[in-house]
């Protein structure tokens, strides 16, 4: 199959290290989706969430204007309004459960409620689920103070508003795979809502192909005085949290510390950002999260799912978990007037583009191997077709990078009729390789890192 958007350079049957990379043209449909993202809509959502006074997990649930109960009812009603405007395909439901006391950050029995909008996939054979979340609870300095003013504008009304905006923009979309837009609860009390949802996904056998949490994406000026409204950080684990002893021994023998499914998801965001939102630099941070902090991606990592965190470029600790006040001439507190709404919209466009690409792409190959059955100066990759989506499979990309390179450096196209590829003269000792599925429009799956085939 000849693809006009692919450029290859073969020299005497041997791939040149200076080969031209694949040249991508953005999908016009996805570009059109991105024009729907509105900074004004995001601002309205952030200000509305802040107006509930506090969204602390232990705050009142029976008040119409104050506390977490009012906030989650408003989120649900807004999701329902977006679903109706999108033709009714998107479904809205509550993931509710009782929790506590736990002797730590929850001192009584309380109902925890994740608010979820589900955009079902159109391919019954494609069971992949992509989750994007922001947590809607908030706090002040005292984590048990459930009544003081805690607007939580950046942490994390910004992420929640971005998720709601994505649901609004994509409500009428028809993708083969399913997307869950989640307003997560009780993050500040110990990632409680995310732990419950990750455990539920694990117990029900959900094929969570990627989880993204947007947590603190509203401030563009850090406590270091640096202002940067053109960078978003993406945190990802290297060694999988759920790695088995056998997988650990294999990794220790042949490498792969930077090739976990979560790290591949982070690289995917980087490539999509370059293609669709070039005004936003996606800065990959090769650690699971920041020092002394955690996010809702972690419970998904611990359950073996690929999950990453997006957050603003510089920390503003004077705004995180602070009582709203002025002390020694310094303004403390996480209030809406300090949010850069245009920046939140840029991050929202990045995530919208990534979700659309992932949900339209065929799934990755079912399995992938690097042939290690004999010593050779060549490298042979083998793989099996994806378990679903073969009707929209145009072929595969094989990717290469130096072992010290953070990003994939080169990729080549292999037609769908082939399930192996040999790099003549390229030693498997000197490079890392990956394989991903691609359709005729250039929508790529997450990269699959091949494991050695010894016999």
UniProtKB/TrEMBL annotation:
GO terms for cellular component: extracellular region
Alphabetical list of Pfam families matching this protein: Peptidase_M28
An example molecular function term from Gene Ontology annotations: metalloexopeptidase activity
GO biological process, one term: proteolysis
InterPro entries: FN3_dom, FN3_sf, Ig-like_fold, M28_fam, Peptidase_M28
Residue ranges constituting the Fibronectin type-III domain according to the UniProt record: 361-455
UniProt protein name: Peptidase family M28
Alphabetic keyword roster: Hydrolase, Metalloprotease, Protease, Secreted
Locations listed in the record: Secreted
Keyword Repeat: no
Gene3D superfamilies per record: Immunoglobulins (2.60.40.10), Zn peptidases (3.40.630.10)
